[in-house]
Amino acid sequence: MSQMQSVEKQLRQMILGLEIGPGEKLTERWIESRFGASRTPVRAALLRLETEGLVGRDGRGWTVSPINLAELEQIAVYREAVEVAALRLTCTLADRSAVDVIEAMLDSCDTDTPREEWHRIGMDFHIELARLSGNEFLFRAVRDAMTRLSRARWLEVRDEAALARAWAEHRAILAAARLGDADQAARLLSAHIVGSRDRLVTSLANDRRGLRARGFAVIAA
Amino acid sequence: MSQMQSVEKQLRQMILGLEIGPGEKLTERWIESRFGASRTPVRAALLRLETEGLVGRDGRGWTVSPINLAELEQIAVYREAVEVAALRLTCTLADRSAVDVIEAMLDSCDTDTPREEWHRIGMDFHIELARLSGNEFLFRAVRDAMTRLSRARWLEVRDEAALARAWAEHRAILAAARLGDADQAARLLSAHIVGSRDRLVTSLANDRRGLRARGFAVIAA
DNA sequence: GATACCATCTTGGTATCCCAAAACGGTATC
DNA sequence: GATACCGTTTTGGGATACCAAGATGGTATC
């Protein structure tokens, strides 16, 4: 039974789903018994998750990476670089009809849609948009960045208005891309990323005390 | 004895130094005996090198990643995005005196300098320049991209003139950065990356037959 | 001579064992 | 009561054992 991928996937889900809190200590032995696997696949999973930035070494042991506000700000700069580059590439493509598929993703969310779905699609928008560029490296960069942001975005308190605003911005970006207006698309995407970062960092900084009370390690910017 | 890092480092050196050719098959057992380690550290090393793109899975086994010309072109686009972003950041810093340290790296190469040193410093220029930005993600992106390019750049036939040209371009980039002229620095860096890519891909495409004869797998663009 | 088939070997994946070092806890001393 | 010291336990790193699936090679058949 190929439990390697299974352990990795399950552990990642538990970390991203905050079932294991940021900052918590992990022992290989605990993971082993928790998933009924032996230490070899557990090791492989930890090594992979380490490169994703979800776990890190804590001396000799392992720790679920804390939420790091300074890191979130750096990621925003990184995202801006790679997402804008990908979007500009996409704008130069002859066939940009694939943006409609992404628009359909946005459309699939309405008031009945559970919060997890909004969260997932909000990330997939950026990931799939990057994939359209056809550049594997830009795509992976965006995907990995979104993975790192995932927990923080989940902890963010987002009101209905903020979500509506994000969706409107997403749609505007797609509209510019559909027209092939690279400069406009890039401007909109940059503003969207910067704005999202500001709201995210502000929200987490405000909630920091409460998050710590819930046992979540949050490192200030 | 912590042989894990040792195995990883030695294996990476052998791959980057082309002692193991692109496309060659690797068995965990061979690595094990070659470095006198057991399979646990070998496995860890392979998993790490896999994320660096230096080895890949070949069905059930492992293979040293071939040189992929299409990939080299994608990396150039990726590099342009992240290196330019990092350089622009650096140009906005109040204290840009650290560029002098990088200039000193360039100065340390003269006609007596062995080829390996030129090669290493040619990469370190870009890596250290990215580090100055202070953005860990941009830095890592550049470092990883240069690692992936390393073997291809080593195989490139570069004449004296090409090296001199690259060094002149490096110096011009530093000069613009020192002045804080972000637009100019970005323009120069973009041109440098694109030019390097063209020369690299052209050189490898021309030598492809010879490289294959040496047992190096080279995948066309 | 070519090909299909079978025994064998090799190999990656997994489980288990061993070890040294670090973490922990209890006790004795000040 | 605080602290320094020491024995015990836990833990990650490494080594080894085992297995099933795939590769290999030789043989027998046509």
TrEMBL record, chains A, B:
Coiled-coil regions listed in the entry: none
Protein name: DNA-binding GntR family transcriptional regulator
Transmembrane segment boundaries: none
Domain of life per record: Bacteria
InterPro entries according to UniProt: GntR_C, TF_FadR/GntR_C, Tscrpt_reg_HTH_GntR, WH-like_DNA-bd_sf, WH_DNA-bd_sf
Signal peptide per UniProt: none
GO molecular function, one term: DNA-binding transcription factor activity
Pfam family, one: GntR
Keywords: DNA-binding, Transcription, Transcription regulation
Domain called HTH gntR-type: residue spans: 1-67
Organism of derivation: Mesorhizobium sangaii
